[in-house]
Amino acid sequence: MTLSMTINGQPRAAAKTREVPNPSTGAIVGQMPLATAADLDDAVAAAKAAFVKWSATPDDVRVKACVDIADVLHANAEELAQLLTREQGKPLGGLGSRFELGGAEGWARYTAGLELKPKILQDNQDGKVELFRKPIGVVGSITPWNWPLMIAIWHIVPALRTGNTVVIKPSPYTPLSTLRMVELLNTVLPPGVLNCVTGEDSIGALMSAHEDIGKMVFTGSTATGKKVMASAAGTLKRLTLELGGNDAGIVLPDAKPASIVEGIFWGAFINNGQTCGALKRLYVHDSIHDELCAVLVDYASKIPVGDGLDERSVLGPIQNRMQFDKVSRLVEDAKARGGQVLLGGQAPEKGLFYPLTIIAGLTNGIALVDEEQFGPVLPIIRYSNVEDAIAMANDNPNGLDASVWSNDIAAAKAIAARMECGTTWINKHAAIQPNAPMGGVKNSGIGVEFGEEGLAEYTTIQVAFS
Ligand code: NAD
User: Fewer CB in a 10 Å sphere around the end CB: N or C, the chain?
Assistant: First the structure.
């Protein structure tokens, strides 16, 4: 299967392509077109030309277009889910591809209904002062490989809703489902409003420096986000950066292991841990440490891991070799530094199915705790003084989310408020929704997505005195 890029509503092939493998089997799913710099220029030029009309389109027409996007996602959900599973590896069922398509549709539908009304700042004998929100122009969107379609929709729909046009570049690891989704969405959008180019990372670098792109929305690693920010400086682009996370969870002594085990497991292992906002290090009070470890191991050991196309699979492989090697390296290092492997911990010789892994006996200062593992591995750190746990949780350059687990909601909320991060949860983790702005502090990003605050990031302010 060779899918085309979409530029100005038309399919665009490339002279060169690259194979996209299925991480479950290694079989080739399809060919990704390798865009040239000229293809990117054409896509940006098409988006720039389309912006003239799209930005002046009545609001209700743009609302309808966003609802149409949700309808297209709904009508084609199974085809897209199958393609997503084949290139990403995640299972079709559970919190896998069908769930991702449902999320994409839900976000599109909710965002369609959002509105940034003009504000009257003053209206008196001295005159009227109004604040309007205007679209920026061409938005460049760069997405990662973990939740490729849902994140693409998080970028595309608010950009279009507010009158911008878009050029999207998916990750080279998972380009096919985005190529197909953009092709489908173009059946309900005017030509040039939504364009898609695929290729190597270098195309992303060209986008963030492109003089006709007014804003970059980037979701990916902190290291790449810093590069995007640096190269966007030359053209003073607006930026939304959703970057890496190393989310901490703190389990207080009064928590009941049996009632929190499911929430902790899925908070950590959702999408095989390949989720920015997954629980990536767990601080557990000494008094319930052993009991919680035992129930977690019991719960995790019953989860079926296998080929994403097998309906019995609940979790799949790690998406790519680079990530697999990173996870293996972090686990080996943790073992060498005294970590006690309670489950898994041994990389298979072949394939990308890393076993679900739980390692206790760790502390801050060990790479598996300090760095984002982005895989099916949960490090557990024992503490006896909650002030130490708070300090250890905050002692990290990332600041995406955190959770506190306790029956005493008031005490848990007081601790959550002290976490240096953009989102906190009590007795759950990684639960997001389209009306709640999401974004990181510190090295986890700049700006937010979702809700009115997220929508506003696709606009500039114009104040009018009359
Ligand atoms: P990555 O940074 O390697 O790649 C992300 C995208 O950037 C890809 O499309 C890639 O082609 C592109 N890219 C690479 N080099 C570039 C450059 N120099 N200029 C512009 N674009 C370039 O990230 P990844 O491995 O695909 O994704 C995993 C990371 O994403 C994790 O750190 C995860 O925490 C993070 N993430 C964050 C959020 C969030 O909302 N905060 C959500 C999902 C993933």
Answer: C
Query: Does the residue 406 lie in any domain?
Result: yes
Q: What is the pLDDT of residues 339-356, one digit of tens each?
A: 999 999 999 999 999 999
Q: Are 319 and 89 in contact (CB under 8 A)?
A: yes
pLDDT-derived band of residue 2, with 50, 70 and 90 as boundaries?
Answer: confident
Q: Which H or E run contains 62?
A: helix 59-75
Residue 257 near ligand 1, beta carbon < 6 Å? no
Q: Whose CA is nearest to atom 35 of ligand 1?
A: 220
One domain for residues 235 and 292: no
Mean of the pLDDT values across residues 297-318?
98
Q: What is the DSSP string of 188-245?
A: SS-TTSEEE----HHHHHHHHH-TT--EEEEES-HHHHHHHHHHHGGGT-EEEEE---
Give the count of domains, the chain: 2
CA–CA gap between residue 365 and residue 379 (Å, rounded): 12
Residue pLDDT, tens place only, 196-250: 999 999 999 999 999 999 999 999 999 999 999 999 999 999 999 999 999 999 9
pTM over 0.90: yes
Active site residue 242: yes
270 and 236 part of one domain: no
Neighbouring C-beta atoms of residue 186, cutoff 10 Å: 21
Q: What confidence score (pLDDT) does residue 244 get?
A: 97
Residue 438 lies in a domain: no
Question: Catalytic site residue 276?
Answer: yes
Place of tokens 């965002």: 111
Cα–Cα distance for residue pair 374/368, rounded to 1 Å? 10
The answer, yes or no, to whether any atom of ligand 1 lies below 6 A from the CB of 100, is: no
**Do both 129 and 264 map to the same domain?**
no
- Whether the CB of 164 sits within 6 Å of ligand 1: no
Range of the domain at 41: 5-243+444-465
Q: Which atom of ligand 1 is nearest to the CA of 169?
A: 9
Helix (H, G, I), strand (E, B) or coil at 438: strand
Same domain, 166 and 276: no
User: Strands across the sheet with 423-426, in order?
Assistant: 340-343, 357-362, 377-383, 279-285, 247-251, 401-405, 423-426
CATH number for 410: 3.40.309.10
- Specify whether 84 is located in the same domain as 142: yes
Q: Which residues of 61-74 are buried (b: 16+ CB within 10 A; e: fewer)?
A: ebbebbbbbbebbe
